[in-house]
TrEMBL record:
Keywords on record: Iron, Metal-binding
Protein name: Hydrogenase maturation protein HypD
Pfam families, sorted: HypD
Gene3D superfamilies: 6.10.20.100, HypD, alpha/beta domain 1
Length: 360
């Protein structure tokens, strides 16, 4: 029976009571940054026995964007003809030089705007015809379709001063990369319900078929998460290694075909770099050649920084689930929400920000 009664406290009590009796060590990775925040906010770690370990994975889009690409965006932002439109989480992430960020660029007088939707960026382009508006496209399959919709709007409405710097990434390639690492030690995955809304149950089926790792597509309420953890433990105990969809109120077997179609109309997979992980084959999304005029990298002939992996902080290790945020020596001393040093503290979905804010 799958769980769809995520707000029944009495049932949750029964499940929690079963979980507190569980005494074997199990390591469960929540792939999604929104899950990380829900877990921290609801205090789930505090009520589970210590042997049930919840580990954050590479599911915060801002966190997995490498410093090299932040530097590329900062370079572009110095062009006086360019107006950068970005989601708010990106503006405090620092590049490699002198702690510079888009926020600092804005203070220096460069044109940086925070938007809530890529369509807002298209509107800005329609109003500011003397500027080249570059939207920073970031996120997994959840947000890539909305970026594609903005490109389609720009095409249909003849907006030629709009382009996208695509940092979009896909979930499956990074999971494959993590699983194939020598020291992979995760016993089960909480799969991101928001990504699954787009790619469907089928998008995570490879975890069951190829890797036999228990996995549950999970919603974002505390009840969803607790029940999913319970199911992962039951699967482990019964050696029944499969994929379940707990989030049936939102996720269909085949996902959202319309959203995938528009994403695939404008984007195609490309090799991409991830903070702390490096190059992953076909893990990013770039504009197709026929839409080159909407690709900021091509439009401004940007010479992208090569991957150096010389980050000074431990965000890469947090993203891979190798360390807990508190194991970073900068956590809560040098690196705080007020004065973040790495993207995992900057982003509202970052594991360090969640741990700092909610002291889970
Ligand atoms: Fe990076 Fe700060 Fe987290 Fe350390 S505490 S890993 S510096 S974000």
């Amino acid at each position: 029976m799958l769980w769809n009664e995520f707000k029944k406290p009495k049932d949750i009590e029964k499940i929690l009571s079963a979980l507190t009796k569980y005494d074997k060590e199990i390591r469960i990775m929540e792939i999604c940054g929104t899950h990380t925040v829900s877990i921290a906010k609801s205090g789930i770690k505090g009520i589970l026995p210590k042997n049930i370990k919840l580990i954050s994975g590479p599911g915060c889009p801002v966190c997995v964007t490498p410093t090299e690409r932040i530097d590329d965006i900062l370079f572009l932002s110095k062009n006086k003809d360019v107006l950068i439109a970005t989601y708010g989480d990106m503006i405090r992430v620092t590049g490699s030089i002198d702690g510079t960020s888009l926020e600092k660029r804005k203070a220096e007088g460069f044109d940086i705007r925070v938007v809530y939707s890529p369509l807002d960026a298209v509107k800005i382009a329609q109003c500011c015809k003397d500027k080249e508006v570059v939207f920073i496209g970031i996120g997994f399959e959840t947000t890539a379709p909305s970026t594609a919709i903005a490109i389609e709007r720009a095409i249909n409405e003849g907006v030629n001063n709009f382009s996208v710097f695509s940092l979009h990434k896909m979930v499956e390639p990074v999971l494959r990369k993590l699983i194939n690492m020598n020291d992979f030690n995760i016993d089960g995955f909480l799969c991101p319900g928001n990504v699954a809304v787009i790619i469907g149950e089928e998008g995570f089926r490879f975890l069951e078929i190829e890797f036999k790792i228990p996995s549950v597509i999970c919603g974002f309420e505390a009840g969803d998460i607790i029940y999913s953890i319970y199911r992962l433990i039951q699967m482990r105990e019964n050696k029944d290694f499969k994929l379940e969809n707990e989030y049936i109120r939102a996720v269909k077997q085949k996902g959202n075909e319309i959203a995938r179609n528009i994403m695939n109309k404008y984007f195609e997979p490309c090799d991409d770099i991830w903070r702390g992980i490096g190059w992953i084959e076909n893990s990013g999304l770039k504009l197709k050649d026929e839409y080159i005029q909407y690709d900021a990298v091509k439009k401004f002939n940007l010479d992208l920084n090569p991957y150096k992996n010389n980050d000074f902080c431990s965000c890469g290790e947090v993203i891979k689930g190798k360390i807990d945020p508190r194991e970073c020596k900068l956590f809560s001393t040098v690196c705080t929400i007020e004065n973040p040093k790495g993207p995992c503290m900057v982003s509202s979905e970052g594991a360090c920000a969640a741990a700092y804010k909610y002291s889970d």
